[in-house]
Write a structure and sequence with these properties.
CATH architecture of one domain: Beta Barrel
Distance between the termini: 56 Å
Structural class: mainly beta
Strand order of the largest sheet: 1-2-3-5-4
Radius of gyration: 16 Å
Strand content: 35-45%
Number of strands: 5
CATH class of one domain: Mainly Beta
Number of helices: 0
Largest sheet: 5 strands, mixed, barrel
CATH topology of one domain: OB fold (Dihydrolipoamide Acetyltransferase, E2P)
Helix content: under 10%
Length: 98
Amino acid sequence: MAEPEEGKIYTGKVVKLVDFGAFVNFFGKRDGLVHVSQIANKRLTHPNEILKEGQDVKVKLLGFDDRGKVRLGMKMVDQETGAEIIPEKKEKEEPAEG
């Protein structure tokens, strides 16, 4: 059976909301946790400010914790398109040669 790949974006469904995050079923019967800090680019008191159980969401597989639990993130994925949001790097302009 295939395994979910780190760094990939999946569509999932919120199956449970808890104080510290949301459990999302995203890969067959695989569930992962989107920590409250990974839901949005703003501070949330509780995930239910943005999410509800049964809601479809786009998540990125961030990795696995030391117990093999799946870590997911939402704030880096455009929830409309499913595209990854890449933060713009603030780089110094190189002087043009010429």
